[in-house]
Design a protein that fits this description.
Helix content: over 70%
Structural class: mainly alpha
Number of strands: 0
Largest sheet: none
Distance between the termini: 47 Å
Radius of gyration: 15 Å
Oligomer: single chain
Order of helices and strands: HHH
Shape: elongated
Strand content: under 5%
């Protein structure tokens, strides 16, 4: 449990870094949906912060809920929103 706060911070820091680079990439290709995509990213980060804060003082069920949220969000985000902007970028190459 001592390592959990540092692991959660590293995950959050990397997520912010990744999303920032992804948004810059989209902007560099003139993707018009970048603001909507950024809103989804910001919402994800807020929810991760909220759930990870509860996770430190909670039980296994909270951990499973947190894990489920992350897995579902990432899979749906990549399968839907990321595919849309990837197709847009393909048309610009």
């Amino acid at each position: 449990k001592i390592l959990l706060p540092s692991v959660l911070k590293e995950i959050k820091d990397y997520t912010v870094y990744h999303f920032s680079n992804e948004e810059k990439f989209m902007e560099s290709y003139g993707y018009t949906g970048v603001s909507i995509h950024k809103t989804a990213h910001d919402s994800f980060i807020k929810e991760v912060e909220f759930q990870s804060g509860k996770l430190l003082d909670s039980d296994v069920l909270s951990g499973e809920k947190f894990y489920g949220f992350i897995v579902n969000w990432i899979l749906n985000h990549i399968a839907k929103a990321d595919r849309v902007w990837a197709k847009f970028v393909e048309t610009r190459l």
